[in-house]
Fold Transcriptional regulator.
Amino acid sequence: MASITEDQRLDAVFTALSDPTRRDIVARLSAGEATVKELAERYEMSMQAVSQHIGVLERSGLVSRGRHRQTRPCRLEPAALAVAVSWIEQSRRTWAARMDRLETRLADLQQGAGR
Amino acid sequence: MASITEDQRLDAVFTALSDPTRRDIVARLSAGEATVKELAERYEMSMQAVSQHIGVLERSGLVSRGRHRQTRPCRLEPAALAVAVSWIEQSRRTWAARMDRLETRLADLQQGAGR
DNA sequence: CCCTTACTCAAGCATCTGCTTTATCAAGCG
DNA sequence: CGCTTGATAAAGCAGATGCTTGAGTAAGGG
C-alpha cells in the first residue's frame, strides 16, 4: 500500500497553490464547474498547459474531473483547502499562546519591579 | 518603485510552505526563535542549506532575521500566514455561498413538484 | 595576533516545473 | 464511414529549485 502521508498531502496542496494560474483556477471553480477548453480561453493558454495544471490540482485533491459528453468538467474539492488552513492555524495558535505567556511574564516582571 | 503585487506575495508564501523542511521550520519558530545552527542540527542538514531555506522564508515575509553576537536568530512573522489563510477563505466562502444557493433552488424545485 | 564559531556568498549539479509541439484517443455529427 | 471537437500522452527545452562544496566575512576567545 502506498498510502499518502500528511506531509505529502500538504506538499501537494501548497505546491498547487504556489502558481498564480492554478490559484485563479481554484477561484474560478469555487464559482462553479468549468471545462478545460473554457479555462484555456480564459488564460489564453493551450489546452495541454491547462490540462497539466488541472493534473497538479487533481493530485493535490483540490480538484476532481468528471465526464460529460466529450468534456471533462472540473470541480473544486474544498476539503483539501481545509487541510492547508488547519495546518496554518496550528502554527498561529502556538505563536499566539507563546505571545500570551510572554505578556504575562512581562506583566509579572513589571509588578515585581514596581513594589 | 518595484512594489510587490498581491499575486507575487501569495506565490512566495505558498512556495515557501510547499517544502516540508520549511513548514517544519515555521512550526519550530512558532514556539520561539532559533539560530541557523540549531535548525541545521535539528534537520541533519548543512548550515548553507538551512540558510537558503531561511532566505526563501524571509523573501516570503514569513520569517525575519535579527542579529545577536555571531548568531542570526530567526523569528516568525505571522502576518504573512494571515495573507494565505484569507486567500483560501475567500474561495471557501464563494464555494459555500454557491452550495447554499443550489440547496435553496433544490428545495424550491421539490416544493414545486410536491403540489 | 591567530583561531574558532556562526553564518553568508558563489558556483556547480541533478532534478523538477511550466510550457511547447507532435501525436493519439474518445465522443458526437453528417 | 470520415471529420470535427475536447481532451490527454509523450517528448523536449529553458528556467527554477534543493542541495553540495569551496571560499569568504563578522564577532569573540585565548
